Amino acid sequence: MEFSSASTIWVLLGAALVFFMQPGFAMVEAGFTRAKNSGNIIMKNLIDFSFGSIAYWLVGFGIMFGTNTGFIGVFDFALNGKTITDIAPDGVSPWSFVIFQTVFCATAATIVSGAMAERTKFSAYCIYSIVISALIYPIEAHWAWGGGWLNNIGAGFHDFAGSTIVHMTGGVAALVGAAILGPRIGKYSKSGKSRAILGHSVPLGALGVFILWFGWFGFNGASTVAAADDASLEAMGSIFVTTNLSAAAGVVTVLIITWIVYKSPDVSLTLNGALAGLVGITAGCDAVSPTGAVVVGIVSGIVLVAAATGLDKKMHIDDPVGAVAVHGAAGAVGTILVGFLALDGGLLYGGGGQLLLAQVVGVVAIGAFVAVTMLIVFNIIKRTIGLRVSAEEEIEGLDISEHGLPSAYADFPLSVQNVGATGAAAVPDIPGEEGKEPPAAKVTVTDVRSQAPKAEGAPKYTRISIITRPSSFEALDAAMQEIGITGMTVTNIMGYGMQKGHATEYYRGVEIEPHLLPKVRAEVVVSKIPVETVVEAAKKALYTGNFGDGKIFLYDVENVIKIRTGEEGYDALQDEETA
Fold first, then answer.
1. pLDDT tens digits, one per residue of 182-202
2. Which band of pLDDT confidence, cut at 50, 70 and 90, is reported for residue 280?
3. Residue 197, SS3?
4. Residue 320's closest CA among 34, 23, 547?
5. Out of 37, 293, 357, 523, which could bridge 242 as a Cys pair, Cβ 3.0 to 4.6 Å?
6. How many Å apart are CA 97 and CA 92, to the nearest integer?
7. Where are the domains of the chain?
């Protein structure tokens, strides 16, 4: 077999570009989730590619193409007795084809990470990553790309670079995983209202989107697996154009929708609009016109907003980064649109319904297969080693609980939004022992109020300063809301008590010396609500019986002045914003 240097180099370049999408996914997921889970996000994307590469080489590639390779070759378990040389496209070196297929497999696996972020056990995720790379993805991909039955349905199922085979597969797996896991703590109120849990870095998420957009030119463009003749070069240029136009149309569509519906263009959804357009065009980037690509981008953007809203507000499926809507919904719709918009065989171009039938059958078959198999896999994991971390570990953050990493941002001060979940009223108490009340001696209450006499009848104002660990803030916030405290000042501080940090943490196997530890200081000024009520509520919410529960300080306040109205004293405190 003779190899074309141009084709082989093009495939290898495409593989490198698709690999570069891994850090893109990592940045999107890390940026759109909270900082306390960033290290965990990075680790999951790292093991997706690492475990996935080995599992796909050992088992997956042979299942997908029926070849003697990896351990399948060692133990002679070939499905059809072929070698990688037999199935590599003309002119492409066999091992170039192997690595190109490997990066596609890793992409399907890593999609799930974002939807199951911030509450999944790392060990459980490792098992999932191996199973999808070794078995689930190779089986369904074989149906269309490995000579399987989908090629014989209607006019033949057409998914050029994987809207369904790669992206919808990851999206459906993400849907099943997120549904079984349940929402993050604080995501929904008791009445079912969805609460926003902001990601800690929109710029980081945006960087990930631009990286993915860049990598997608290799994802779609190099799927020609040829670059040796004029026809291949023409196809490559056309694919770059359709890929880019669909992404751009997705951005503009979501921008307009959110601007109209939410009165301002939503940044994170608009960024996802680019990804939806990219996912949607991946199936037919070689088959549609530039105009058709714009249509795919518009429809993908509409579907993204509808799916994201429906999953969150109607179905109460918590997907922190929108992976299900972007990859699952847009992937399915983009694949089906090929049946309408393909220049050769599309329904709108006089091709009849044969191609459309094949597209619908392929989407339904692959979607059902992935849903059923992932339902089995995730339930087995859930009933054996467990799928979700404990409530305490989730509130504390997966960086520290799963990886012993105090913060992925070292000394960078984190906001309270990033430390814990929003919607504190939905966060359960985590006491030392169920039903055990905190004894007064366990919580230090230092009274430093002035002993100077007050004028008779003058109202009394007290500033209550509570210092505790960041992971306890949600419980404190919920307790304050319950007793009617509606105004609070919260700051992140650093410090330690006489114990100087009780737990031992490690970085790269080296013990971290305890210096200043992250703390949260919450302050309220009260007059109408009794000080004792606030103190008792705080003690009950914060008490675990362990070092680090915190301290409460009480201070006399001479006067309170509201700048907006000029009101002073008691009147200045009586509105919706303060206690």
1. 999 989 988 888 888 889 999
2. very high
3. coil
4. 34
5. 293
6. 7
7. 5-187+200-225+232-388, 411-573
Domain 411-573 fold? Alpha-Beta Plaits (3.30.70)
Cα(497)–Cα(275) distance, integer angstroms: 48
Query: Is-contact 494 517, C-beta < 8 A?
Result: yes
Domain 5-187+200-225+232-388 falls in which CATH fold? Ammonium transporter fold (1.10.3430)
Asked if 402 and 389 count as a contact pair (C-beta separation under 8 A), the reply is: yes
- Residue 512 has what pLDDT? 55
What are the pLDDT digits (tens) for 293-309? 999 999 999 999 999 99
CA–CA dist 63, 55 (Å, integer): 11
Catalogue the long-range contacts made by 313-317 (C-beta closer than 8 Å, 24 or more residues apart): 313/194, 316/183, 316/188, 316/192, 316/194, 317/175, 317/178, 317/179, 317/183
pLDDT band at 469 (very low <50, low <70, confident <90, very high): confident
The token pair at 11 is 């495939």
Structure tokens belonging to residue 98: 């192997």
Whole-structure pTM value: 0.81
CA 477/CA 455 separation, integer angstroms:
34
